[in-house]
Amino acid sequence: MDGLIDIDQSPKMINDETWHYGFKDLTWDEFPAALKMPLGRATAVKIDEATVAAVRQANTLHPYDESANYNFAIDHAFQDWRDIIALMPVPFLAVAGEKSPYFNPDFLQAIQILNEKAQIQVVANAGHAVMAEQPTAFNEILARFVKCVQ
Long-range contact list for 133-138, CB < 8 A, 24+ apart? Predict the structure, then answer.
């Protein structure tokens, strides 16, 4: 692996006394029930029609399995990846949507404290689906990172 990219995903989903950047306001008191679908709107801005059509087509070919996602979300919520980020041996890019309804983008600052080599970028006017909401900005960020990794 030559590099790692994190897109609007906090390294720890459950908020506690050591972490205040988890999924929404999720604490152990609401876990796991708060991870049941629907999770609420993921976007902050309207996604263009071409992208929406492509997602619908992909969903027709590969239907979304809500129950599998729930099991994944529970497993993921148990994890705390902060130690992995601190010891990340490859270039690392973390991107967050400025208006993400799921994660406070300030988690990027916490990531940078954990690993000073981490590259962080908040994308303006984007929610959780950063790459779909602001594709030009996201692709520019991605291209810069890939150049650094090569």
Answer: 133/43, 133/44, 133/45, 133/47, 133/97, 134/45, 134/97, 135/51, 138/95
Q: Mean pLDDT for each consecutive 10-residue tract of the chain (150 residues)?
A: 94 96 94 86 94 94 87 92 95 97 96 95 97 96 93
Beta strand extents in the chain (DSSP E only) = 4-7, 92-97, 119-123
**Measured between alpha carbons, how far is 125 from 114 in angstroms, rounded to an integer?**
26
Read off the DSSP letter of residue 44: S
Asked whether the beta carbons of 107 and 80 are under 8 A apart, the reply is no
The 10 Å Cβ neighbour count of residue 36 is: 12
Q: Of how many residues is the chain composed?
A: 150
Q: Find the largest Cα–Cα distance for the chain.
A: 44
∠ at Cα 142 (94, 11), nearest 5°? Answer: 15
Using a 10 angstrom Cβ sphere, with 0-12 exposed, 13-18 middle and 19 or more buried, the burial of residue 96 is: buried
